[in-house]
């Protein structure tokens, strides 16, 4: 479903040029759970942001469902970003003065064709899926780290994405909560066929996934 061909990403600042990714070739198939490991600075976050169409490569081609992303109009791109892709981050990225339910509902506001009732329903279903239907009126500060990450996962799920891109989703959690979040991601992949690409520093988590890709210095090494 997602193909990277000869991807290069060079960051250019006034005086320095950083090669973050160097000739990366990678295919993510529908329904896969792939983990990506590698030392800090090797290009993992850059890779995820390119996969999520949040940034553009300086070389190479990204294809989604066999079609080069460069051939999409801005409108089509926005649609793919909103409908196909869900993001989860290490630091949750929740809005602290919105309730759990409002946090989950927020991205749906940018979706054409959903009534407010449908938005609410979808958000509630997503919270049920992550086991948080009893916490919809809480605020993020009233939740544990693991629960906050569940809210973030529900927010991604509410959009019914085909692929979830997770940047160290368990990085800020203790091992018990980390395990729980990992189990949740595994079950989404197994039961709903959601494709997951996860960056992690945790070998234990990575070995639970069906494919492990290692990066070093901007390139895939295994
Ligand atoms: P990782 O996620 O593996 O830690 P990153 O993708 O964040 O690696 O970074 C890869 C390299 O690109 C690093 O050398 C980093 O400093 C550099 N880099 C990342 N983002 C930028 C940016 N916006 N501008 C300049 N350099 C960047
Ligand atoms: P994480 O490792 O949690 O993914 P990072 O600290 O690597 O986060 O990067 C956070 C943000 O800062 C990213 O969006 C990345 O593109 C940007 N960034 C990373 N390194 C640099 C850099 N050297 N110069 C400018 N921006 C950078």
From TrEMBL:
UniProt key word ATP-binding: yes
ABC transporter domain location: 2-221
Pfam hit, one: ABC_tran
Superkingdom of origin organism: Bacteria
InterPro entries: AAA+_ATPase, ABC_transporter-like_ATP-bd, ABC_transporter-like_CS, ABC_transpr_LolD-like, MacB-like_ATP-bd, P-loop_NTPase
Gene Ontology cellular component list: membrane protein complex; plasma membrane
Sample GO molecular function, one term: ATP hydrolysis activity
Gene3D superfamilies for the chain: P-loop containing nucleotide triphosphate hydrolases (3.40.50.300)
Keyword annotations: ATP-binding, Nucleotide-binding, Transport
Coiled coil regions in record: none
The UniProt record lists the keyword Nucleotide-binding: yes
Family: Belongs to the ABC transporter superfamily. Macrolide exporter (TC 3.A.1.122) family.
Stored PANTHER family: ABC TRANSPORTER ATP-BINDING PROTEIN YTRE, IMPORT ATP-BINDING PROTEIN
Protein name: ABC transporter ATP-binding protein
Lineage, uppermost ranks: Bacteria, Pseudomonadati, Bacteroidota, Cytophagia, Cytophagales
């Amino acid at each position: 479903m997602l193909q990277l061909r000869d991807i290069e990403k060079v960051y250019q600042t006034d005086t320095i040029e950083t090669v973050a990714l160097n000739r990366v070739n990678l295919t993510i198939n529908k329904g896969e759970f792939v983990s990506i490991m590698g030392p800090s600075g090797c290009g993992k976050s850059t890779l995820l942001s390119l996969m999520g169409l949040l940034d553009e490569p300086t070389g190479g081609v990204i294809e989604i469902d066999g079609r080069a992303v460069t051939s999409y109009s801005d409108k089509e791109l926005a649609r793919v970003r909103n409908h196909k892709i869900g993001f989860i981050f290490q630091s949750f990225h929740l809005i602290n003065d919105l309730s759990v339910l409002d946090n989950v509902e927020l991205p749906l506001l940018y979706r054409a064709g959903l009534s407010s009732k449908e938005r609410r329903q979808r958000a509630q279903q997503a919270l049920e899926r992550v086991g948080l239907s009893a916490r919809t009126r809480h605020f993020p500060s009233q939740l544990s780290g693991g629960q906050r990450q569940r809210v973030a996962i529900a927010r991604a799920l509410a959009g019914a994405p085909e692929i979830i891109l997770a940047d160290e989703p368990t990085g800020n959690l203790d091992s018990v909560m980390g395990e729980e979040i990992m189990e949740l991601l595994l079950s989404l992949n197994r039961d709903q066929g959601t494709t997951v690409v996860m960056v992690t520093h945790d070998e234990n988590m990575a070995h639970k996934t069906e494919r492990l890709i290692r990066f070093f210095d901007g390139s895939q090494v295994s």
